[in-house]
Amino acid sequence: TYQAEKTGQIVVRKSADDQCSYLYLDDQNRLLNMIAINDSKLVKLAKRWMQSNTVLDPNLLADPEFNVMKLKP
């Protein structure tokens, strides 16, 4: 479910030619949903963020040079 009424912003992360992710954050920068193309590591990490209600930094998520594994829940 998209939950448009709860989405505060959408962060686009393009980390390689064949990798692109759309992360839907609420108004407190917690992950609601995501669409990931060819990025299974990010999907696994995102599940943990969602389970633990991790507050994320949209600027870091959008930066393809930033290692998102540092954002452990």
Structure description:
It is built from two helices and three strands; from the N terminus they run βββαα. It is an alpha+beta fold and 73 residues long. The chain has one domain (7-65): 2-Layer Sandwich (Enolase-like, domain 1), CATH 3.30.390. A three-stranded antiparallel β-sheet has the order 1-2-3. A hairpin with a 4-residue loop joins strand 2 and strand 3. The radius of gyration is 11 Å and the shape is globular.
Mean pLDDT: 90
The amount of beta strand, in percent, is 25-35%
CATH-scheme architecture: 2-Layer Sandwich
Radius of gyration: 11 Å
**Describe the biggest sheet?**
3 strands, antiparallel
Which ranges are low-confidence, i.e. pLDDT below 50, for 5 or more consecutive residues? none
The CATH homologous superfamily corresponds to FAD/NAD-linked reductase, C-terminal dimerisation domain
Which fold name is given in CATH as the topology? Enolase-like, domain 1
How far apart are the first and last residues' alpha carbons, in Å? Answer: 23 Å
SSE order, one letter for each helix or strand: EEEHH
Counting structural domains, the number is 1
Pick out its properties:
73 residues, alpha+beta, Enolase-like, domain 1, three-stranded antiparallel β-sheet, 3 strands, 34% strand
Give a short summary of the structure.
With 73 residues, the chain is of the alpha+beta class. It is built from two helices and three strands; from the N terminus they run βββαα.
SSE layout and pairing:
Blueprint lengths: L6 E10 L2 E8 L4 E7 L2 H13 L5 H5 L11
Antiparallel strand pairs: 1-2, 2-3
